[in-house]
Amino acid sequence: MLKFKSMQSRLTTIFIGISFFTMLFLGSCGIYGAVQENNRLIAEFRKDMEENAQLQLEWQTHSALSVIENCYQAQVRGELTQEEAMQRAADLVRNMRYDNGKGYFTIDTDQGKNVVLLGTEAEGKLRIDAKDPEGRYFIREMIHQAKLGGGFSDFMFPKPGFSDPLPKRYYTLEFAPYHWVIGTGIWLDQIDRRVALREKAFVQNMKEQVIRTLTGLLLLEILFVLLAIFVGRRLAYPIMVATKRMRELGNGKLRMDSQTEAEMEALAKRDDEFGAMSRAMNEMNQKLYDNQQLILRMAQNDALTGLANRRHFAEFIQKCSADTMFTLISLDLDHFKQVNDNFGHQTGDAALLILAEVLKSQFTDALNVRMGGDEFLVVLTGKVDHAVLEERLRTFMRQLIAVYQQDEGLQCLTVSAGIAYAKEQPVPIEVLMNQSDEALYEAKACGRSCYRVYQG
Question: Where are the transmembrane segments (predicted)?
Fold first, then answer.
């Protein structure tokens, strides 16, 4: 057992031991927190990627369905026979592509007979009993989801030109007049690759943060050791105060109570080593608190535009009362993919930043949300004057296009919008979002660069 000849040596040893284990605990907590935060961000990124992919599949499938609907209307008007209308619809859908030609559509009857599949030999054949390697009757599941009003199916299926099946997510809709099931899908390995790249970046960033934290803690520990050498009996009280605060930091308590704050302020006014230690602790405490607040802001705001993200939007909705009257405006840039393909993602990011700034200047009284990609949402609460709101929207669209016209790389961009009002009584936010999306799809179908109001 250690024997100390003086209180100074005893206090010095105790102080060094406490500071060392506190720093060790803080370092462990910091590393653990960084790992947990990294895992959470990766999980949220994957979730966002899957949600964006599902929204894309739904939008693309509705686009294909609108093509079939146009052929059916031609049949109804007597311009085509049913056989001619069905053949034209099948030919048009067979030739439709998206995602640089990787995305295609299929059509099956509700009895499982294939109508459209890239012109392969599968067309015209019954595949109701088709199973994937895991034994799932995926054609039956696709038909079932379509008859429910549209839904997703997961199964294993090979890519065109390959034989090895891969996980695929498929969205299907029913076109009842022809007893057709129309759908399109995405292979999940595309999402896996993007998540892997993002995870690599997150891990590298986490490593850098851990190194900085450990370096800071090491330097702080060295400072505490040096200060401990000069500790004496008359400094017992300051040690007690500092130790108390270090324990609070170790327990994650970044905000001090009034008593501790007064003690630390008195200690910080000293001109000796304990004053320096107190100020260093206060600085560390402030930095930890600032970092905590920064993480909270990053969790609620889109990193590129600074607008609210989906998480912020969800929290905002949860805080609203059940009788809140919402008005939603769904926005989507037209020809955004063309800008990314022709001028690069930096130009695309610039277009998104411009939209965000114009949006914030025009809708200062709303929650402006970037839902993902080039999709945005304006959320207003309370009763609104429809005419005034629509004039504000038109002003926003004119201002945005005027800015885009000043840059050659952005001149092709326009914006489409869909408005959904809660007119007489509150409407569930999910219903209102679907309505604003339908109005947006209608604006897109009407030639883009315009807006439509949901009239259902």
Answer: 12-35, 214-236
Question: How far apart are alpha carbons 346 and 353 in whole angstroms?
Answer: 10
Q: Which of 231, 252, 287 is the C-terminal boundary of a domain? A: 231
Q: Is 54 exposed, middle or buried (0-12, 13-18, 19+ CB in 10 A)?
A: middle
Domain contains 266: no
Residue 226 is encoded by which pair of tokens? 């040096």
Q: How do residues 123-160 score in pLDDT, each as one tens digit? A: 999 999 999 999 999 999 999 999 999 999 999 999 88
User: Residues 356-386: pLDDT tens digits?
Assistant: 999 999 999 999 999 989 999 999 999 899 9
User: Which residues, other chains included, contact 424 with Cβ-Cβ below 8 Å and sequence gap of 6+?
Assistant: none
Residue from 374, 385, 407, 437 carrying the catalytic annotation:
374
Domain count, the chain: 2
- Indicate the residue among 200, 231, 262 that finishes a domain: 231
Clarify whether residues 51 and 199 are in a common domain.
yes
Low-confidence ranges of the chain (pLDDT < 70): 1-11, 15, 228-256, 260-261, 263-264, 274, 277-278, 280-282, 284-300
Catalytic site includes residue 271 = no
